[in-house]
Amino acid sequence: MRVVVPFDAGDPKTRLAPVLGAEERIAFAQAMRDDVCDSVLEAGGRPVLLSTEPIEHECPVRVDERALGTAVDAAVADTLEQAEACGVVMADCALASAEVIRRLGVGTEDAADAAITLVPARGGGTNALVIRDSRFETDFHGVSISDHRNAARSMGVSLREFDSYRLGTDVDVPGDLPEVLLHGRGRAVEWLADRFTLTTNDGRVTVERQ
Amino acid sequence: MRVVVPFDAGDPKTRLAPVLGAEERIAFAQAMRDDVCDSVLEAGGRPVLLSTEPIEHECPVRVDERALGTAVDAAVADTLEQAEACGVVMADCALASAEVIRRLGVGTEDAADAAITLVPARGGGTNALVIRDSRFETDFHGVSISDHRNAARSMGVSLREFDSYRLGTDVDVPGDLPEVLLHGRGRAVEWLADRFTLTTNDGRVTVERQ
Hints:
2 copies of one chain form a homodimer. The first copy, chain A, is globular. In chain A, a hairpin with a 2-residue loop joins strand 8 (196-201) and strand 9. In chain A, 47% of the residues are buried. Chain A contains 7 helices and 9 strands. The longest helix of chain A has 21 residues, at 22-42. Chain A has 210 residues and is of the alpha/beta class. In chain A, 34% of the residues lie in helices and 22% in strands. Chain A binds chain B through residues 99-100, 103, 120, 122-124, 142-143, 145-146, 163-169, 178-179, 182-183, 198, 200, 203-205, and chain B through 99-100, 103, 120, 122-124, 142-143, 145-146, 163-169, 178-179, 182-183, 198, 200, 203-205.
């Protein structure tokens, strides 16, 4: 299955600015993105980077500078002209593993599966989808999981919600970084562990620069 | 499978005090606990409430006022005298569903499964376990997921990590309440939706009293 991996190549992960400089944010975002691509490949899927700007990468790159939802819908529609299903996994799903991507259905082409599969993210987001109906339109603003549920219901198609801590965790704010140190497996945790350590503060786990 | 559900019957959910009064915290904690018990029952498991104080409940209640880890270990050890496996699911796993409890292995008695199954929670916690070796000792303080991993490794037994957004989400702080409104299915979401609505603030989802 082709899996679209949207990536902001310009000024990524701005909400990490309190703890990471601009160049660090780019390097860390690239590490997370490459971990996602590796997991998709290992699961038997074919990652396509959907980038806001031209980039060099060993995976195929599709450049689209339009709004995220518009760009994703176009990439999905092109895929569905030749395939039963198209996956979408956000590039900041730093805990993604081949195992969970496989469990999502990537690597198999099971047409009996739901028309729309949604992977909820903390805070009402949607971190990943499998789309089998090109009429479905994504929208990643606001409480996207509710919007996506409503869109599937109003189309009257089958909807599945996929339950995963790994795929449900994206990395947006400094409070997300402990998750990478605790559960990451690839380049992102390696990059982060070179610079930060876990610490507990008032019973809550946080990260501290070395 | 017997599933121990630890519950603080005294002053539960103190970190929700900024948004819920003391009586509200008790009512909400009970609603979450009863949702967990319902999900375990529906999955074919047998919930046992492990309470810090005597309480009335339709499920069996075991009272133990010792520290959480000590009380859990004693309940698990007693269970493993008569069974292959014992589950533990925290009472504030408000998104637990019968489906995910079943996927965890409750309702089946698959002795081929790992000696220790851990369900990571956000922030380094452990929200649920399946224990098949009574030598394993739990400890829910600090970064418990790391401590539990190390304990299993030092015993040299098989370790499985269970990937679930539903079981990985517990409800400790006001920032967790949107998750209940977005994904809850039972009494807890009903109780909460009578008092709070979802709202977005600066692009982040939060709750607001009606």
